[in-house]
């Protein structure tokens, strides 16, 4: 379509336009100038009257050209804002999710679409503790499979922080909500709709129900392997979005997030750290990082995690033992050891610490206070 450039500044308000004063001054002794001024004044008055009429008129069809211009402007906004569609494009409800910073397995997580209820929830649980909370914008337009939302648990391994060395497992698994996804008010606090943790979902009466995805593949115990998801994308979307789009983006996000905190980690040589990254996919197959977990669950909660964990942990030893020893010997003897499902996606140059300049950076702001109701 036709490209539309966005304005550098917001347009002047309609009220200011309708009430714009005459800027030009006229010499009262110059009758020709006075006549020209009167004509311009009448023309401006006619323009203002037409603008008032158009503003008060009933909406008219946008037309094909107008539609193309609107679509082009929205595409420009989308390119400038990575989270342009996170609220959903139809009837957004401004939903937010609240998480206790120091808890795991879905404990204490709640969704809200009203600020008073959110603050009341946090204050009630924070009264006698030093609990910290994480508040995130809730993705209102997730990709749903079998009418359920899901996230992707991805393992990432750091074998050295300086030089930063990152390994990415080529396999991952999907965790589904037990009940159908909805943003209805009555289900806003339904954990079986909004949370996908197995430690939460297994307590639902519907946990063992048979779920069948749109491609005919069954979802057992509310989990899928990444191979299942690949086949789903090929069958339903007509393209392997996981291999071509989602997984490369997850690798980029993993690398960027670890680079961002590299200088904050107190690391030790000859040690490693395993992280569980949680991603979500929106209905346009865009990838979003939800959170990063240290010491991710390695239990056999389902047949999907059992197969994954057994294979990934054995391969992890190939990286942390065999590869490290091979590198210690200067890459001898022979080729690099086989690392199974682990791929080294980043190895930076060593960073030599420099003396601090003594500058302190801080974030200043004001706390959101819940308004007290008048008696």
From TrEMBL:
Residues 1-59 are annotated as: Disordered. One of its GO terms (cellular component) is microtubule cytoskeleton. Residues 33-45 have a biased composition (Basic residues). It holds the Pfam family TTL. InterPro entries: TTL/TTLL_fam (IPR004344), TTLL_monoglycylase (IPR051437). Keywords: ATP-binding, Cytoplasm, Ligase, Nucleotide-binding. GO terms for molecular function: ATP binding; protein-glycine ligase activity, initiating. Residues 21-32, 46-55 have a biased composition (Basic and acidic residues). It is found in: Cytoplasm. This is Tubulin--tyrosine ligase-like protein 9. It comes from Heterosigma akashiwo.
């Amino acid at each position: 379509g036709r490209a539309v450039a966005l304005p550098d500044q917001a347009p002047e308000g309609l009220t200011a336009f309708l009430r714009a004063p005459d800027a030009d001054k006229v010499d009262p002794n110059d009758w020709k100038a006075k006549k020209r001024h009167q004509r311009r004044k009448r023309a401006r008055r006619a323009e203002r009257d037409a603008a008032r009429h158009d503003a008060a008129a009933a909406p008219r069809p946008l037309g094909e050209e107008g539609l193309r211009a609107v679509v082009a402007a929205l595409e420009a906004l989308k390119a400038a804002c990575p989270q342009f569609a996170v609220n959903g494009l139809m009837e957004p409800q401004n939903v937010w999710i609240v998480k206790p910073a120091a808890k795991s397995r879905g404990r204490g997580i709640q969704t809200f679409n009203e600020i008073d209820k959110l603050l009341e929830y946090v204050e009630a649980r924070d009264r006698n503790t030093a609990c910290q909370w994480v508040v995130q914008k809730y993705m209102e337009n997730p990709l749903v499979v079998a009418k359920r939302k899901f996230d992707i648990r991805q393992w990432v391994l750091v074998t050295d922080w300086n030089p930063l060395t990152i390994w990415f497992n080529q396999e991952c698994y999907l965790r589904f909500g037990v009940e159908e996804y909805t943003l209805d008010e009555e289900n806003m606090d339904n954990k079986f709709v909004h949370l996908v943790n197995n430690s939460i979902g297994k307590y639902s009466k519907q946990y063992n129900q048979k779920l069948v995805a749109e491609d005919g593949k069954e979802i057992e115990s509310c989990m899928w392997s990444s191979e299942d998801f690949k086949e789903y994308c090929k069958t339903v979307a007509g393209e392997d979005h996981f291999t071509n789009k989602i997984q490369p983006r997850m690798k980029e996000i993993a690398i960027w997030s670890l680079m961002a905190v590299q200088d904050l980690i107190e690391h030790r040589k000859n040690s490693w750290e395993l992280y569980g990254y949680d991603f979500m996919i929106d209905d346009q197959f865009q990838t979003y990082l939800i959170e990063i977990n240290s010491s991710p669950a390695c239990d056999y909660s389902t047949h999907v995690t059992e197969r994954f964990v057994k294979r990934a942990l054995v391969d992890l030893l190939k990286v942390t033992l065999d590869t490290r020893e091979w590198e210690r010997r200067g890459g001898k003897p022979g080729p690099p050891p086989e690392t199974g499902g682990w791929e080294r996606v980043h190895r930076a140059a060593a960073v030599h610490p420099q003396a601090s300049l003594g500058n302190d950076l801080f974030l200043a702001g004001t706390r959101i206070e819940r308004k007290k109701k008048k008696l």
